[in-house]
Design brief:
Elements (H helix, E strand, L loop, with lengths): L3 E6 L4 H5 L1 H9 L3 E8 L18 H16 L3 E7 L23 H15 L3 E5 L8 H17 L3 E6 L2 H12 L25 E4 L4 H10 L13 H6 L3 H8 L1 E6 L33
Parallel strand pairs: 1-2, 1-4, 2-3, 4-5
Antiparallel strand pairs: 5-7, 6-7
Helix pairs in contact: 3-7, 4-5
Length: about 290
Amino acid sequence: MSRTIVAVNAHPDDEALLMSGTLAKAAAAGHRVVLVVATDGDLGMTSAEFRSANGPALADRRLTELQASAEALGAARVDYLGYGDSGMDGPIPPDINGRTRLLRADVHEAAERLATILRAEQADVLIGYDANGGYGHRDHVRVHEMARLAAAAAGTPWLLEATIPRDLLARTVEIVAKVYRFPPSFDVTSFRRAFSSAEQITHRVRVGRCVAAKRASMAAHRSQAAADGGADRTLAMFLRLPDPIFGWVFGREWYVDATGFAPGEVVPPRRDRCSQGRAGNLVPDVFADR
């Protein structure tokens, strides 16, 4: 049975890292996949080439890159909610080009924009972020809040939150740090506080057959792999991985079933969830670990 899966992200390129394998797998299985992005990503780090006054603004370029990513994944529709990037930290920058910074917008109004899409699509599943917003970007936390509010308002049957087991991620980053020199600003220990604990995770999706689509999704976001002065970007490093290693690193994606939880509410361990065992009843079988 064909289902509709809506995935909401904070910035263009966020879909590529956490959920693109699942989305490609779903689309290949005949499910309808809709990508929604909250902000234009105009404050994303990049090189002078992509900020050139002679070319399109970074925001427009990044939205164009999102379209290319969607095509690589087989998504049927892309929607932009119309907000500006809030930046990682510090004072919220002024609004620009009529685009309110996401953190300055009313969260309920933003959630209603998303809920409108969910109703129009009669979505079966909404994918958002966990309560930490993944690695903690404040726009990601706001999207987490929006997704929980929107799923409740639209009556979307299932809300899954993309994440990574934090212990696994921390160990992986520490191993990589032994052979790869991360930028000085990169805090290797930060991942011990990010994402979700393994015991909260309810869905592990094997996406090995779709890693080529995942790589293509990442590669579509060229501006986010670029930096000045020979500096290295994490996305660029991922794209240089040989296929076997890329497949090992990105061959699985993880989700927390957050259906019915309020924004910021901590999801208890899966063994304590009364909803355990519902998997497969409403959620498309793409979320089964096979």
